[in-house]
Design goal:
- The structure is a single chain.
- The chain has about 350 residues and is α+β, with helices and mostly antiparallel strands.
- It contains 12 helices and 8 strands.
- InterPro entries: PAP2/HPO, PAP2/HPO_sf.
- This is Phosphoesterase, PA-phosphatase related.
- Keywords: Membrane, Transmembrane, Transmembrane helix.
Length: about 350
């Protein structure tokens, strides 16, 4: 069973990564990447090679990410997320998010019922179903090498299971290696970093809150409107019946929000990332109501966590230098530069 899952996911990632690789080529054509330069790394005397990318409002200096640096950054990301959330400046915002979530709990059941009713009205099957396109036997194991969603709701829900973000990262990584594009490589590293940080954060919160998923609440002998809460469930009970305890907050939406935030931060001139990404998030949110995986009150905190994580992670690996004015015809920037023989200086860059 484990071999089957690994082979299926690996083949699925590979096929879609090829598709995204060709899409990424279009991004390069619009990136206006300059030649390699040597600059000081932030406020230190350390010299690193960087690539300059022009955007409408700034010049972005990208450094090549170190192998597996994203994994080393995860503890710092989680600490910074907590520090940011409970800072004096953000406490009122956190209060609004939690209060809004509490109010939504009061209408969770009718909203879920309405979502399911609308799904029936438009003939949107809520069942999670897939169809096998390619299967074979290896050493006595039956392997489903390629599966696709078998209904529209499953296709939408498929986007939120985490593999979509990994496929985007895989496509960008393939492109970054071939084209020696530091921005694509950094974006890949940031997405991987965000997925790991969010996975740990949301799992920690789920194991504290212990909220029951809608489909579990409706299947129980004594259904509780908006589901039951079992704070701090025992690890054994949690693992035995995960869906009885893991609804709050939604890891699906947190991951989707972080991925969109990271992509938009690294490609600010791409006007399609946010509208397309947020539209898909809306569809994903509805699909999870329709199939009974989440309540709507699971969403506000998840979106806030995903956005915060995306902003923290996307601040790594590059420097943003604002342009003087926003005229398309002329820009200038002053930056540290490497002059040779371990000496530093200043470089004035002007474009007319």
């Amino acid at each position: 069973m484990v071999v089957q899952i690994i082979l299926f996911r690996a083949l699925k990632y590979f096929i879609v990564s090829i598709f995204i690789f060709f899409l990424a080529a279009r991004v390069k054509a619009e990136s206006k990447k300059d030649t390699l330069v040597n600059v000081a790394w932030r406020d230190t005397l350390k010299i690193r090679k960087a690539q300059i990318f022009n955007t409408e409002e700034s010049e972005m200096l990208y450094f090549r990410p170190k192998p597996f640096q994203f994994a080393l950054n995860v503890p710092s990301d989680i600490y910074t997320m907590g520090k940011t959330a409970f800072s004096k400046k953000n406490l009122p915002k956190l209060g609004v998010i939690l209060a809004g979530s509490a109010l939504l709990v009061l209408v969770d059941q009718p909203i879920t019922d309405a979502a399911k009713q609308f799904g029936r009205y438009i003939n949107l099957n809520p069942a999670r179903a897939s169809k096998t396109l390619l299967e074979f036997n290896i050493g006595g194991f039956h392997v489903n090498a390629m599966e696709i969603p078998d209904n529209a709701n499953s296709a939408i829900y498929y986007l939120g299971e985490g593999w979509a973000s990994m496929l985007v990262a895989g496509g960008l990584y393939s492109y970054g290696l071939v084209a020696s594009d530091y921005r694509a490589l950094q974006t890949t590293s940031q997405i991987a970093e965000g997925i790991f940080a969010l996975g740990l954060t949301t799992q920690f919160l789920k194991r504290i809150t212990g909220r029951q998923s809608p489909f579990r609440a409706m299947e129980s002998e004594n259904p509780v409107p908006a589901g039951d809460w079992h704070p701090f469930p025992k690890p054994g009970k949690y693992q035995k019946s995960v869906s009885n305890y893991d609804a709050f907050p939604s890891g699906h939406l947190a991951t989707a929000m972080a991925t969109i935030t990271i992509l938009a931060s690294n490609y600010p001139d791409n006007k399609y990332i946010k509208p397309v990404g947020y539209s898909l998030m809306g569809l994903l949110g509805y699909a999870m109501l329709n199939n009974g995986v989440h309540w709507i009150s699971d969403y506000p905190l998840a979106i806030a966590i995903g956005y915060t994580c995306g902003k923290i992670v996307s601040s790594r690996g590059h420097q943003v230098i604002p342009k003087i004015g926003h005229d398309k015809g002329a820009t200038s920037v002053l930056m540290p530069a490497y002059l040779g023989a371990e000496s530093l200086g200043l470089s004035y860059r002007a474009t007319f």
